[in-house]
Each structure stands twice: as C-alpha cells, then as structure tokens.
C-alpha cells in the first residue's frame, strides 16, 4: 500500500454509472520520513471517509476492488485507511492531530 | 487512476476481433498542479466518448476491464471519466471550459 | 497499452510446455512524438503476426492473457495491434509504410 | 518479490473491518548488494511475524492475497518471507544474525 | 516479460508452507543491447531449473501464477524461460554458451 496525503477532489459528471456516487480524491504520495509530498499524484476512490489534509494509504491493482465500496468497480487505487501514526526506527515520524 | 490529456488517436487495422470498434486514444499523463503534460504517453481505450484536448482519467490493470466497453477485452488502460474540475488545497487547478 | 517497436526475437528452448510455439519478440518502447526508442526493452508474446521494425502496442498484466493466443498462459506482455498511424494534435507523428 | 527492511509500523484505526487485526509494517526497499535502504517505502501486511530491522521480501499485486492472512483482503503488498541469507555470485551479501 | 541474469539465491526458512520447496533466485535485470546488469534486483521463483549466470526472463503479476510450479502460490515474479539467444536488428546480442 502507498502512503499519500489527500490534497483535494476530482470532479467528473461524465463517467460510467458504476462510478456514480464514489468520492474521487486527489492524492499526493508522501515520503514517510519527511512527510513531504513527492509531487506524484493519483486519483483515488475513498472507502473510509478521508478528508483534505489527512494522511492515508491506498491499495492498487485488483486489490483496489476488495472493499464494500469498490467491489466490481473500475478502481485501481482505493483509500483503505486513514493513518493515525507512522513509527520508524522507534520514533514517530507522523502523528495525526487529535480533535480538541 | 491516472490523470491525462487526450492528445490524439492510434489507428490499427491489424488487431484481434475483440478489439474491433474500440476507440484507441493517445493519452499524455498530466501534472494536476501545472496541468502540463509529462511527456509520458499511453494508448487508452475510450469508454466515455472523450475528445481531443480533454482532461480525463484512466484506470489500469484488471480494473481496466470493469466497464461495459472493455469487459473481457485485452485493455490495460481504459478512460473512465472526463474531468470537469480538479481542486487542490481549496483552489481549482483545472476547470473544463463550458460550451457556449 | 504501450507503444513499442519490434527490434528482434528472443529464443528459448527451455520453457514450460504452455509457452511452446509462441513467438517471443524483443520490444523497445518508443516515444510517440519523436518515434525514437527509449532504450527500455521487454519480451512480448506476439498475437498478431508482427514483424521486425513495425510499431505495435502491447497490453500488460492479466489483460495480456485476454487473447486467443495467450489464454491461460504465463504472458504479462502481449502484442495486440500493429499500428498504422499515430495522430497527435491533428498531425501524424507516424504512418506505416505501405507495401508497394 | 521485492527485498525490503522492516523499518517500523503504520497505525490506523480508521479502516475496513476486513483489515482489522492485520499488522501493517513500514518497509524500505533495499539493494541486495550493499544492503542499504533505497529511500523507497511501502506499507506491507505481515503474514510471517516479521520484526523491526529484519530483511524480508514482499509480494505485490493479486498474489499479495494468496496467503492465509490476506485471502480476500485489500492488500497489494504482503510480507511472505523473513530472509536468512542472500547469496550473490557465490558470496553472501547478507546473513541474518542468529539469536545467542 | 523481463530479461534478467541469475545472480544468486535467497534463503528463507520463515515463509508460508505454500512457498516450501520453491527455489528462490536473485535476479538482476539486464539490458539486452549491452547484456549488462542494471543494478535492479528482484526475487524470482524458478520454474525451469535456471542456474547462476544464465540469462532468463520472468513473468510478473497474476501471470506469475500461471505455471505448474506456482499455481495458487504467492509469486509475483516467476522465471519461465532460460534464454538461448537474443537477436536485435538482425544480429545476436546474446548467445548462450553450449556445454562442451
């Protein structure tokens, strides 16, 4: 799975009926050491209610169809997790801000 | 899914009968921040009636066969959406021109 | 699908019986603007009778098995079209020479 | 399959129920000659009980679902082996330390 | 399929029972023009009895499971041919040494 930050949305009215109602997010891959964006973007289908700015990971290939949201649908990149924390070599490189 | 601009068409008379009648488009991947082409091209099967110059996204892998147009056909890149708008960090980086 | 030029052949006597009789071609990916080779090579199974020097496109992944030639066979790159012409931004970047 | 070192963990409470209980590890791809990390990270599902610091290899694509742990689950990168040794050109480039 | 040279072996005692008995080889991708290694390595499952130093090609993705050896197993890279010769633009760039 690939770590990414939700950067925005992609709007399309002209698509197959099987894609209707799916939320399409603009994702930028991130480096998990610096948490900086890599300038490499994909369009992902959201299956977890991710919001702009959040760190997520998405799954590619046929496994992108292995969620309730995307079963039988033409997705090759599906967001399956909102990330709470990334730990590398015993230290946190990322921790999600908690709502106050 | 991958954002791209329709740059032209690819013509082939010598192909399997299962590919007959499919529209084959020349796609150039685009950067969604600058909307410039990346010089990276693929041949995609059109399932949405995309036209030259339009921004689309295409789906890869086995999911490229998950449309009415490409079911059971040897496509690994199928255009499944014409993009109306791309929003990044709260601002539009792309908005499709409306017909007057 | 990926545009490539047929550059030669790959010979192997030591392979599974399911691969017997398949024509294995050496393909070099090409840039569709300049039509120059990219120095990036793959071995493809031919399903259309392609010849050395011709521009083709091949299909990857599980879709590479979606031809009569490769059904159930371990191919991840199958040539499915000999290209006649490539049109980009209204002009031809490639046109196949016709036999006189 | 791809060689990598386990560098840490990725924590997510917000994910599909099918992913509950799976251990998500932060993997850095390694060069098997120098055994140095490549700065290229993925999130992998652990199916073998790998620990931080260990060299493993993971399997991608639909084959990532071909383990007891990941059957029918949306994984595109599953750790399927802890590496004991890598031999290249007759010499070991890596040998796992044995517990004393 | 991807051309590579067998550079060595990868040893793992800690892996799923479905992987038991499979020979895991360290493969380095090669350029078919110079026949030099590209410094890009993968771990492949051997289905043809390849030996160190030999040029082979391997198949990726779900097609890596389309051999007797790897059916239903978590392989995403399976060696399916030992290469005897590579011909490019009418000349051999590689020819396997014959046993005397």
Q: What features would you describe in this structure?
A:
The structure is a homopentamer of 100-residue chains. Chain A is an all-beta fold and 100 residues long. The first copy, chain A, has a single domain (2-12, 21-83), classed as OB fold (Dihydrolipoamide Acetyltransferase, E2P) (Beta Barrel). Chain A is 0% helix and 48% strand. Chain A has strands at 2-11, 24-30, 37-46, 55-60, 77-82, 85-88, 91-95. A 5-stranded mixed beta barrel of chain A has the order 1-2-3-5-4. In chain A, a hairpin with a 2-residue loop joins strand 6 (85-88) and strand 7. Chain A starts with a strand and ends in a 5-residue tail after the last strand. The mean pLDDT of chain A is 96. Chains in contact: A-B, A-D, B-C, C-E, D-E. At the A-B interface, strand 1 and strand 3 of A face strand 4, strand 5 and strand 6 of B.
């Amino acid at each position: 799975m690939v770590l990414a930050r939700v950067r925005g949305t992609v709007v399309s009215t002209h698509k197959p009926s099987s894609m209707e109602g799916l939320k399409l997010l603009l994702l930028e891959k991130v480096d998990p050491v610096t948490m900086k964006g890599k300038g490499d973007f994909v369009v992902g289908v959201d299956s977890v209610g991710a919001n702009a700015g959040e760190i997520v990971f998405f799954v590619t290939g046929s496994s992108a169809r292995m969620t309730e949201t995307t079963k039988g649908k033409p997705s090759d990149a599906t967001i399956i997790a909102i990330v709470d924390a990334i730990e590398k070599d015993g230290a946190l490189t990322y921790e999600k801000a908690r709502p106050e």
